[in-house]
Amino acid sequence: MPFHRRRGWEIAACEATPESLFLNRRAFLRTSVAAGALLTTGLSEFGGTADAEGSSASLYPAKTNSTYSLDRPLTPERVNAHYNNFYEFGATKNVAEAAESLRTRPWTLKVDGLVEAPRDYAIDDLERTFPLEERLYRHRCVEAWSMTIPWTGFPLRALLDQVRPLSGARYVRMETFHDAKMAPGQRQFWYPWPYVEGLTIAEAGHDLAFLVTGAYGKPLGKVFGAPLRLAVPWKYGFKSIKSITRISLVAERPKTFWEQLQASEYGFWANVNPAVAHPRWSQASEEVIGTGERRPTLLFNGYGEQVASLYAGLQKEVLYR
Ligand SMILES: Nc1nc2c(c(=O)[nH]1)N[C@H]1C(S)=C(S)[C@@H](COP(=O)(O)O)O[C@H]1N2
Ligand SMILES: [Mo]
Asked: What happens to this protein after translation, modification-wise (predicted)?
């Protein structure tokens, strides 16, 4: 069992590094970059599909909130959609095709726990209840690669304001669907399904914590975690949970998916920090997917000015893993 448990993650970790894969990927990316340049305008090419049944498609594209600007070009959609982590559909980076079996309608988000007004939202209602906006965010995976993505969604805080957390609520626990018939990865019993993630209530209330319903000017493609995922851009990518079905306000710190598998490597906080190495590799720089470039990694993935104050007084915590 421990052998299997470990192997699950190591597949992903090795994929980020072997020279042969790296070179192949570069060759692939070179040929796709020219086509990809078009995509930054929001024109679509293959990027994983969204379910046609969704009645909220007319809400896209949403207006861009220009507060969130980038220091680098967007990752073309088709490059992004062929380099993903979505273990429910397999432990490789090429899961777009497998993820097509994800059914996103009907889809209910349950919001419960320590709140005054628990509530279930049908996804199409959720997208109409909260005004959608587009934000350009960096994304930094713990495996030392990065992308930049035009997400569409709304701040998690807007949802919390509607359900009104009670005073005992200290953490926000989020959970992905659990359906091994639909998602073959969930038949791999050595993973602690369903995928669980969490934030402190202060983190969840930060304006940057974004609930995502779309990307590249359209409803969210399946491989990106349709129909609802999180984007917390100052943290390693595994915190940005995909295909969320439940958000619970709780008193205790939730045990997260990767923490259950390997707590020494993937902790609760997981804030990006170039100076704190992963036990098996450096975090000083990152491969910018689609460009063949490496860039120095930034503290809090470049969002330090906005989020550093969340961690005042928490120096005793393992904040950067
Ligand atoms: N449910 C679920 N959420 C998940 C994952 C996953 O395997 N399952 N992978 C995480 C990791 S490690 C990363 S880097 C991002 C990848 O998101 P992307 O494919 O849109 O880049 O999703 C995160 N959220
Ligand atoms: Mo990741």
From this structure: Predicted to be exported by the Tat system. The position of the signal peptide cleavage has not been experimentally proven.
